[in-house]
Hints:
The complex is a heterodimer of chains A (383) and B (389). With 383 residues, chain A is α/β, with parallel strands linked by helices.
Amino acid sequence: MGFTTKQVHAGVTPDPATGAILTPIYQSTTFVQESVDQYLSKGFSYSRSGNPTVKALEEKIAVLENGVGCTCYSTGMAAEQVVFQATLSAGDHAIISDVAYGGTYRLATKIYARYGVNFTFVDTANPDAVRKAVRDNTKLIFTETPANPTLKLTPIAAISKIARERGIVHAVDNTFLTPYYQRPLELGAHVSVHSTTKYFDGHNATTGGAVICDSAELNDKMRFHQNATGVIMSPFVAWLTLQGTKTLSLRIERQSANAQAIAEFLEKHPKVTQVRYPGLKSFPQHALAKEQATGFGAMLWFEVEGGVKAGKKLMDSVKLCTLAENLGSVETLITHPVTMTHAIMAPEERLRVGITDGLVRLSVGVEDVEDLIADLREALGKL
Amino acid sequence: MKKPTRVNHPKPIKLLDGNEPVASAVHRSVKFTYPTIADSLSPEAKEHGFDYTRDSNPTTRELELLAAEIQDRDDAIAAGTGMAAIWLSLLGNLTAGDRVVIFVESYRPNRVAVRRFLPKLGLSFTMLSVHDLEGIETAFAADDTKLVLFEAPTNPMLQVPDLDAIVKLAKRHDVVTVLDNTFGGLHNHGRYEIDYFVHSLTKYANGHGDAMGGIVIGDKKRIRAIKPLAVNMGAVLDPGVAFLISRGLKTYYLRYERQSANALAIAEHLAKRSEVTRVFYPGLASDPGHALARKQMQDFGGVVTFDLDADEKRAWAFIDALELFTTTASLGSTESLVSPVKLYLGSDLSAEERAQAKIKDGTVRLAVGIEHIDDLIADIDQALSKTFG
Lengths: 383, 389
């Protein structure tokens, strides 16, 4: 069955009681048991441990990622936190992409470091660097590809191979490309992680997260922590996300086509000194982008002549592109990572991995591309 | 303030100037207030203010103005369902003694409203074929004819009316034009001088099969004329539902485009099958309405109707054999749906009227979704083999 069919139908079956074509919002906190002996015979007891609406979304996402199971969470960070909890204990070591979402960096350095977990931030684009960083107590390799915000790519298959040789879990944050364009588990990863807030919802209407595993054993571990730490997604958010997911491929296809056109426009613009988009021939890892994914996504960044000052002026001048964090939704959003998404990173660390002060990040939406280019052209003209 | 009082008067969170939510807030409040009574009576408050959600609500208003803009008009009134919007357009413009022109090819509930219920209020009707321009001119010329209710294309048989001709005749005879544009969609037909556009927002506008709504769209003067009735009827759209429909509209173009592409591919495929005697789809080059539809519309929507070479029982067997297409009414959502036309959409018509409307025992309507086209065609083929094999 095609992805576009699965995104509409997977996980959703008409309600047996009423024939409702959509999964109902099971807002109920608790579920009646027929008898003590039959406890949990119908699968549900308490909505922190599992809920039928959340389960429908989990089944849909597991199918789309080609995983064995999926667990959903209240945010993308809750999902990531559960991956850390399920794989790391005091005294363990983890490898993380040196370019990653600021929240990942914070979770590692500010929280898990306190509990005796050691982290090494590695250029995961380079498998040799990863191989060298592996220690006997390494339990998790957490990569993000394309990375937020520099878009550096990690070769998923190569890193998964190293992880599997050493019995280490390889988790990939697949938020930027979604399973429509990239399926880490098919490339050898054990776990795929999402902020569903982004492309799955796509309408800026919910916050949520998902973890998809390649084995029942790993999925059970995630499920245990989902329940124990109380970070499960709410039924209403699950329902909105189920609905949003139905148009996932339509949105990201249009968003990627728009992003390609904008990247090409920016590349030719005299005020723009640098553009990075995996779909550009000038992108250093363009070949890898084509090899491990079927599309390039809708995230791009660029720098303008005049550095930070000009970058800020540009962001204040755009009208259609909204100055906001978040990404992946129907609206085009513009972000200054240094002051917004990656402010938590130490300045020298940011510079080392390529997050320059003048970097402007664009999450391209589904608007008419001519309107978007006109907006950018006008703002660039003011510099 | 004592705490039992405070719980009923929480301190509201006011957003800082310029700190705006990207997705609009849902205003659930039933009531809206002003610092003083005088403020509530100011011209600005009367024009743009909010008092009571049955009259108007910011979340619903945002949707009304958005839908109006897509339809190339400047005002609108949202309603709880498409039929509530149809009734608003009728009652808002009619008086006892008036005559309404309706078409035999119409959506069944529209026909039922005009044929069964309007006569109880002292109104009469004339029912014609939408292709009968001579009959339309005669009916419009009658002194008591006040309004015409029509569709483009018609549901379920996808007949394409000549909008230029109908609008011209209506203007000549001072007849109010109400176009149920649900099939055409908000982005089609706006350039025609039609007085009121009505949509079931439940269909393409929302598109996710999870909210019901309707809307009447027109220029400010037309909408103002029916607003007092709307407020009094109280068939309003709930703000929570308005939020869902506004969310749905964000992917409206993507969905309508994909559904139209899928529908055309299915229509072309059906036209090649020996079990199918006729395909109705305005996007199909061989369709009698194709030239007119190409002139009037950008794209042709997701509904395809066709006649199986079969009696009613076998047509039902075909429908039951479909797996991806769910048997139900409605259309315009992400999932593909299928309806037996005579049973679901023709039960109020006599055999003669059904023949005039082109509805046969073996007529099937598909409301095509956004699934992968190969899966949809494979499903149709397996159901045809199973039923005719």
